Amino acid sequence: MQVDIKTTSVVQLRETFSHVARHLGSDKPASRYQEASLNLQSTANFHYRPLWEPERELYDVRRTQIEMKDWYAFKDPRQYYYGSYTIVRSRQQETMEKSLEFVDKRGLLRDLPQEIRNAVIFALVPMRHLEWGANLNNCFVTAYGYGTAITQATMFHGMDRLGLAQYLSRIGLLLDGNSGESLAHAKTLWMEHAAWQPLRRLMERMMICRDWFELFVKQNLVLDGLLHPLVFRQFEPRISAQHGPALSLLTEFMTTWFDESSRWVDATIKTAAAESPANAERLRGWIAESHSEIMEALGAYAAELFGEDAAGALAKVEATLEARLTKLGVGSTGKAS
Amino acid sequence: MNMPISGKPPKKLSLKENYALLTRGLGWETSYESMDKVFPQCDFEGIKIHDWDKWEDPFRLTMDAYWKYQGEKERKLYAIVDAFQQNNGQFNVSDARYINTLKLFLTGVSPLEYGAHRGFAMAGRNFKGAGASIAAQMQAIDELRHAQTQAHTISHYNKFFHGMHDPIHMFDRVWYLSVPKSYFEDAMTAGPFEFVTAISFSFEYVLTNLLFMPFMSGAAFNGDMATVTFGFSAQSDESRHMTLGLEVVKFILEQDPANLPIVQRWLDKWFWRGYRLLALVAMMMDYMLPKRVMSWSEAWGMYFEQNGGALFNDLARYGVRMPKYHDVAAKEKDRLSHETWGIFYNYTHAAGFHTWVPEEGEMKWLSEKYPATFDKHYRPRFEYWRDQQKKGERFYNKTLPMLCQTCQIPMGFTEPDDPTKICYRESHYRDNKFHFCSDGCKDIFDFEPEKYVQSWLPVHQVYQGNCFRPGTDPTAPGFDPLLEVLKYYNFNVGKDGGEYLDSEDKKHWEQWTGKPGVSI
Fold first, then answer.
1. B53-513 topology per CATH
2. With a cut of 70, which residues of chain B have pLDDT below it?
3. Contact between A48 and B27 using a beta-carbon 8 Å cutoff
4. pLDDT of res. B15
5. What ipTM, to 2 d.p.?
6. Are B318 and B260 in contact (CB under 8 A)?
7. A263-296: b or e for each residue (b if 16 or more CB lie within 10 Å)?
8. Distance, in angstroms, between A275 CA and closest chain B CA?
9. Residue A227 φ then ψ, to 5°
10. Do A48 and B115 touch (CB under 8 A)?
11. Domain containing A185: what range?
12. Where is the YHS domain (chain B) (predicted)?
C-alpha cells in the first residue's frame, strides 16, 4: 500500500533564480552547484577603473586571449561548490591524517636508510615551494579570471595546492623528527641546487604571466601534467617497491587529488578548445611553448631522481600527457579523438 | 645532499610551531624575475613594508584543519537547510513583510560577499608575505562560502516570494543597489592595502556588528530558521575575519611611520563610505523587521560609539584618531532610518522590495525609541501618507532623485545641525559641477576626483537612455520610460516592488498560511 504524507498545497511561483533559469533555458529545478555558480559575478555597469589597471574594467574578458560567447559554458564535472568541496576534502584529510599518524608511530620514514631519506627529501620537500607557486598562480586566476564557473574552481584548486605544499612539508617533518631541518634544507635546494634551478626559473616566469588562461594552461595542464606523474607515478613507486609502502600512504592524497582535479582541468580545456578554432590554436600554442620549456626544466631534476632511467621516466609522462592532449583536441596532431 | 637527518623520535609541535613550519617558509625571494614584477601591486599606494615576517598570523589554520572544520560546518548547515525546505519553514516567519529584508540582503549584501571573495583573492595574490597572503586567501574562500550558502538558503524563499529572483542582474543595474555596488567596487579598484584596510578593518572589524549581525539577529527574532542557521554558521568565519582586520591595520602601522597618514585617510574615507552604506541597514532595523531587535540609534550607540570608541582609543598609541565625521554620524542617528525609509516609500514602485507605513503599534515603538525626533518630524508625514493611502491615493514619486556623486544615495539627508533642511554640497572639477549629500562624501570626492567622476550614477544613466533593454525604441508611441527601466532591471512589474498592502506577497501569505496580514 502506498502511503502519502499530506503536505500543504502551496503553488510554487518559480523553480529557481532568473539568472539560473536564463542559463538553463527555462525555469526548472536547479542543482545546488548551478545555483552556487551560474552568473554569480557582476558583468555590467562598473563604477571605477582599477587603479592597478586603468585600461581595463574590474572584471574584464580582455584579460585573456581566449574568447568565449558564454563564460558559464565551463562546467566542473565534480560539481564543486564550497559546501561539496569542503565536505569531500574533509573526508580525504581524515584518511591522510590517519596515514601520517600510522607512519609516524611506526617510524616508517625515519627508519629508512639515510640515502633513501635524502632522496625523498630531495625529490619531495622542495616541491612545497613549487606548490606554493601553483597556489599563487591559481589565486591569480581566481582574482582576475572571468566567470564564477572557472574562478570558483581555481579558488578550490589554489587552496588544494596550499594543502599539498603543507602535506609535502609534513613528509619532511616526519623525516627530520619535527625539527624543521629538512624544510630548511629543502629551501636551500630550491634556491641553489642546480637540478632545482630550471624549475624555479620556470615557476618565476609563470608568476609574471598576465594572461590568466595562459597561466591556467601552463600550470594546471602542462606543468602539473608532467611533474605530478613523474613524482607520484614514477618516483614514489620506485621507492615503495624497494622500501615498503610508507611513502605510498603519504602520497595517496596527491595521486587521488591529481586524478580528480585532472578531470576538471580537462573539461575546462576541452570546452575552451571546442568553442572556436582560434581558441584551439591559441591553446595549442601555449601548450607547445610550455611543453618544451617544462621538459627541459625537468631534465636535471629527473636525472637526480632516476639516474640513468631518467629518459625513460620522462618519456612515460610525456606520452601520458600527449595522449591526454590528443583526447582534448589540443594535441600536437591537432585532432580530437 | 648529505645533510645529517637524525632518526630520533619526533618532538611534539605546538599549534603555533606546526603552523609556522608549514606556512612561513613557503614563499621565497625570487631572483630569475624581480620581486617587483612578481608582486607588481605592492608599492604603488605608498605603503612601506620592511619585514613581512613581522606579520602575526591571526588564524594559524593549516589547510587540513580548514577542510576539517569547514566541512563539518557545511554538513550541519545543509542538513538544517534541507529540513527547513522540507517543512516549508518559510511560512513560520513573523509576517511576510519580514521577507523584504531577505530581498534587500540577497540583492544588496550577498553580491558584496562575492566581491569580497574576488577582492581577497586579489589581495592574496598581491601580498609578498606568505602569512598575509594565506590569511587573505582563506578569507577569499570563506566569502565565496557566504555568497553561495546565502544563495542556497534564500533560494527557497525565492520560490514563494517576489523580488529576489534575479539578484546579480539587479545588483548591476537597480538604482539603490549602486550604493553597495559602488562601495565595494571602490575598494576592489583600489590597491591591495587600501582594500584590506577598507574591507577587513573598516567594514569587518568596525562595522560588521552593524551590518551582518542585524540581518542575522533580525532573522532570529522573526522566526527565519534558515537564515539564522546560516548566520550562526558564518559567525566563526566572521570572527576570524575581524581578527584579520585588526592585524592588518596594526601590521601596516608598525612597519613604517610614513604609513600612518595614508592609513588615517583610508580610515576616514572608509568609515564614511561604510556608514552611508549602513543607511540601508538602519531602515531595515527600524522599519522592515516586524519583530524588532533594537533601534538603529541604539545599535549605533552600542556598536560604534562604545565599542568603536574603545577600539580607536586602543589604536591611539599608533597615532590613529577617530575617523573624521563620526560626530556627524552621531548627530544623524535619530534621523537616518526615517529619512531613508521615506526615500524608499517614495520610490518603492521602482524598487525590488515593498514598503509600507508602519502600523500604529510600530509608530508607538518608533516614538519611544526616538523621543526627540519621531513624533516631531516623521510621524506627521507617515500619518499624512496613511490618510492618502486610505483615500486610494498612495503616494509614488514619479520623478527621479538627484544622487550623491560619492555614496549614490538620493540626496535626502539633512544638515547635521538642522533636521528640517536638506544637506547639499558641491565641488567643481573639470568644468563640471558635482553634488554631494554630506561633507564626508564631498571630501572623498575632492581627494580622488578622477576616480569618482566615473561613478555610474543610475539616475544620470536613465536620463541618458542607457537603462533600456537592447532594441527599445524611445520614439515608439506610448513609450513609458519608467516601465522600460523596470524591464531593464528585469522586475516583474507590479509584483517585485510597490506598496506592501497591495502586493501579491501579502495576498499569498494570507492564502497560504491562514494568518492575518497587516492593514492600516
1. Ribonucleotide Reductase, subunit A (1.10.620)
2. 1-9, 520
3. no
4. 85
5. 0.96
6. yes
7. ebbbbbbbbbbebeeebbebbbebbeebbebbbe
8. 25
9. -70, -45
10. no
11. 79-328
12. 414-456
